[in-house]
Amino acid sequence: MQSNQYDIIIVGAGPAGMTAALYTLRAGKSTLLLEGQTYGGQIVQSRKVENYPGAPEIGGAELAEQMMAQLRALDAKVVSAHATGLRKTVDGYEVLTDGDVYSASAVILATGVGHRKLGVPGEAQFIGRGVSFCATCDGMFFRRREVAVVGGGNTAVQDALVLSEICAKVYLIHRRDGFRAEKHLLDRLAKVENIELITDTVVTEMKGEFTLQSVTLRNVKTDEVRELAVSGVFEAVGVLPQNAAFADVVALSSDGYLLAGDDCQASAPGIFAAGDCRQKRVRQLTTATADGTVAALSACEYIDNKK
Known about the structure:
The protein is of the alpha/beta class. The chain folds into 2 domains: 3-115 and 239-306, FAD/NAD(P)-binding domain (3-Layer(bba) Sandwich); 123-235, 3-Layer(bba) Sandwich (FAD/NAD(P)-binding domain). Helix content is 24%, strand content 29%. It has helices at residues 15-26, 60-73, 123-126, 135-138, 154-164, 183-190, 285-306, and strands at 3-11, 31-35, 77-80, 83-88, 93-97, 101-109, 113-115, 131-132, 146-150, 169-173, 195-198, 201-208, 212-219, 225-229, 232-235, 239-241, 271-273. Strands 1, 2, 3, 4, 5, 6 and 17 form a 7-stranded mixed β-sheet that branches. α6 (183-190) links the parallel β10 (169-173) and β11. α1 (15-26) packs parallel to α7 and α5 packs parallel to α6 (183-190).
């Protein structure tokens, strides 16, 4: 394996990671940005971003592209690789990937979160064949067909609204009797005729042959069970932090989030946490970029103080 030395390695190229890279590069630090999937993180799944200052309405993918364009203008080193672990060295850390090993004096973990799954029979079988986690990405595959969205928060309601413009019918399934999405989204939801709300209900099984054809539903109050014929299911039931690979080096919360202070310093010296992967109350695009800024400045200060 090849060893590559940098001042700072940033793991994750979502808004937090890209913001961190912007600041470390502008500070003159040699920086490597690692991303195992697509840069932009979850924001690329948002058709419209309406709460980012200075950009009243912009597509998530477009915003991610603009962020990356800023980094390319600074000759950022971006490598497509999945980080599999951290190893302490005399001078800093090695970041292990599914390819090379990279070394740095400081590491910023901006790993984001992944999609929580329902864990019901048939789900794994139909991922990519009817089960999706991104309405913006996959909605057009179900044009003029009937689909279901599972969840009760902002993402679920936004997905239902997006799909309502593409699909013949959208069922929005939630295990509780009320939705926790923001009021302006619920107001929009109430005006859409081809969205049907199914509350107090959970999905217990997914069925089909080569592709998904139906889901089994159970009402949690009455235990009534019924089949719902749909061609697609879009899951929006929460997220999981992507930090397990680093648990032997940095402290995690009981639910797997990185523990870090206001300066984004994690439990191990020279490791910083930024974005949705760290334990905090609010997870928004603006808080992710704010974390990226703080983590970058803290990492630069850490390196400067070592010299």
